[in-house]
Design a protein that fits this description.
Number of helices: 9
Radius of gyration: 19 Å
Length: 281
């Protein structure tokens, strides 16, 4: 079962190519690729050492995704500002989903392991990187609920902080779609309920001055490569604001549906109101 893609009736405004855009994209993209190529084998080597010394836990190799993400945003010239702080309690993080850029954004300010749909594991380029960084892959099928719960429980007991996107799809970055309660169910199992909290996090992308306010969004059937090039070649960049909301203890919430509503409300609270032009698309 796959989630339907969110789409918009107002097509995105593509920024025109200007002089030196191609060169700018190469000068930003090449160091990012080199950074990944250097850090990936170092991470895998560290992972091998971890397996021999601490088993399935990842106390050292989780440094690399955060380092690569922070450096990549700096190379692209996109400043990142945070309000609040990541929780220290065991549990999960939930956030709104606007773009593939969320992976860099949310990795840059905390040590997390993403929860992703199983199909991503087979995507060219992205799949191997996701597997190497410890992404938890799940099949969105009710028949897999038991296995999913056991997997979440095992990772949480290792001290891993899981991050997932309850909207189930990405948007234009201006809105928050209704949170699906399905993924919250595992945290209400007796083995986890009294131990974990869930922290809502809002990611707000502010477009470059004069650009389409949805500049950093990635939705519908947009392709990854053109989106990446658009970000890399931008003469002026916008910025990113991340708000860490207060964690919500699972034991204090009656059920998964109420938890989904509470988290959605918190995430939505840190985004400005949508302009009339984009409100009903």
């Amino acid at each position: 079962m796959t989630s339907p893609l969110w789409n918009s009736s107002v097509p995105p405004v593509e920024p025109p190519w200007e002089r030196f855009d191609g060169l700018r994209a190469v000068l930003r993209g090449a160091p990012i690729v080199l950074l990944i190529l250097v850090c990936l084998p170092l991470m895998m080597l560290t992972r091998g050492i971890e397996r021999l010394s601490v088993g399935a836990r990842r106390p050292w190799s989780s440094f690399f995704p955060r380092f690569v993400s922070r450096m990549s945003l700096r190379i692209m010239g996109i400043p990142l500002h945070t309000t609040g702080a990541p929780m220290s309690a065991p549990g999960a993080v939930v956030a709104n989903h606007s773009s593939w850029l969320d992976i860099f954004t949310l990795n840059a300010c905390q040590n997390v392991f993403f929860v992703s749909k199983a199909e991503v594991a087979n995507w060219a380029g992205i799949g191997p990187l996701a597997r190497a960084s410890g992404t938890v892959f799940i099949a969105r099928d009710r028949k897999e609920a038991g296995r999913q719960k056991a997997l979440f429980e095992a990772r949480l007991h290792m001290g891993h902080k899981l991050l997932f996107f309850p909207e189930g799809t990405s948007t234009d970055g201006l809105r928050v779609l209704p949170f699906k309660p399905t993924l919250f169910a595992a945290f209400f199992a007796p083995e986890l309920r009294d131990e974990v909290s869930i922290q809502p996090v809002t990611v707000r992308y502010i477009a470059p001055l004069g650009a389409d306010p949805r500049f950093y969004g990635w939705w519908g059937d947009m392709e990854f490569a053109p989106s990446l090039i658009t970000f890399l070649k931008a003469r002026k960049q916008g910025s990113i604001e991340i708000t860490f909301h207060d964690p919500i203890a699972v034991k204090d919430v009656p059920n998964r549906k109420d938890m989904a509503v509470l988290c959605e409300k918190a995430v939505r609270s840190a985004l400005p109101e949508i302009s009339d032009k984009f409100k009903n698309v």
